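Ticket 4471: requesting a sanity check on a complex prediction with nicotinamide-adenine-dinucleotide. Repro inputs:
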Amino acid sequence: MNNYQALFDRQYNYYFDGNTRDLKGRIDSIRSLGNELSRYEKQINEAIYLDLGKSKFELFTTEIASVQHEINWLSSRLRRWTRPIKVRTNLVNMPGRSRIIIEPYGNTLIIGTWNYPFLLNLKPAVSALAAGNPVIIKPSEHSPHSSEIMAKIITAAMPEVRCSVVLGGVPEVTELLKLPFEKIFFTGSTSVGKMVMKAAAENLASVSLELGGKSPAIVFPDAVQPVTAKRIVWGKFLNAGQTCIAPDYILVHESVAQNLIDNMAVQIVSMYGPDPARSGSYGRIIDQRHFDRLVCFIDPAKTVVGGTHNREDLFISPTILYPVSFSDPVMQEEIFGPVLPIIPYSNIEDAVKKIKSMPKPLALYVFTQSVKEQDAILSSVSFGGGCINDTVMHMANSYLPFGGVGPSGSGRYHGRSGILEFSNQKSVINKATWIDPFIRYPPFTALKEKILRKLL
Ligand code: NAD
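Returned structure tokens:
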């Protein structure tokens, strides 16, 4: 017997009996989660600090405030967004009325990761709950302090039939994935995303994948300084580079490469001081395995900024490598840490061709004042989302759907798109009975065919 079958069944029965459909109950549950998040703020701070060494300011803005914002945003708009959507009815269906009914999928599994433990588990959970689904959350085993507090918060906020946290790692996920969930929402690596999709195929569950990859930033010669350097440094070294949409590498026109590096060096000192190891605003690497992986990328011959590290403290300073080529080891996989390779280019067409030949990234950033250059990139390169003249901030706009494409993921959430991602859109035509055109019914005659051809 599957360890989680009983919990799954209780949630299924709760959903089956219609308990998750009531709009007020859904709003109450996410608001209750918001209240518990506020009540547990001190413990959350301590837990995330123990897991990732994040500063109080950073974790408040990127984790707690972001989830609270989503709760408020959805609570005030849910009624409007879940109303049936009236659409036009085509000629062959006249007279009739057509609409799309937004309904919950049912049992939902959210598998999360560790880099923003609260944001990346609770933000999708808020969407799923608001959409009317019972939810099981499986947070990452690599951020154990955060996962434990999250389990307490969820237990305090609502009954387990509405939402429950399962702690554990690979064996627990493997067991959970055997259950016939209607919806699976996974955040993590592309390789595990493939496993999740295969397992979901067994039950034909609807799957959303929020994956990673190498997200480029392209810096043109006319990029405005120092704001370009400042925004790249901020987006890259936030959470010690462990951000899925951080710029993974920079492609910069060779004529301004040195200027960009000089500006970034100044910005690193301005944000983290002369010794980032002593900065209260700079985080740590999640564990020694990731630390060792990242240190291997630091080629001393190419290190132009930073490069210092301390395994005991899981500290790696903000590091810039230059000049890097696409064949360097650091360009062979997603970095996911505070190491920033700079690749100079001389011809933008060649640079864009190279990006297009690589797996479609989760994010892309363009720094130029030229609308023509911005449009050329936006219209030719496929990616999940991004910014012009900034990094990361597209994820902070609830009007913008968030997600990847192909190897960087599928599906979208945040704001209204989160409600739709966790809902079945049921299409219904309501037909009048006072008229019933004979034409569609057998026997099919030449006259009927003639009329039909005219109509279609
Ligand atoms: P991961 O894929 O190793 O782990 C994610 C989850 O999958 C965890 O809950 C873990 O327990 C589970 N898992 C791990 N191995 C498994 C296996 N063999 N079978 C079943 N379950 C398994 O990813 P990670 O190292 O935790 O996260 C880093 C990756 O996540 C990076 O690629 C990053 O870009 C990506 N990411 C993406 C987003 C996004 O929103 N798109 C956000 C954060 C991180």
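Notes from triage: DSSP finds 15 helices and 18 strands in the chain. Leaving this open until the requester confirms.
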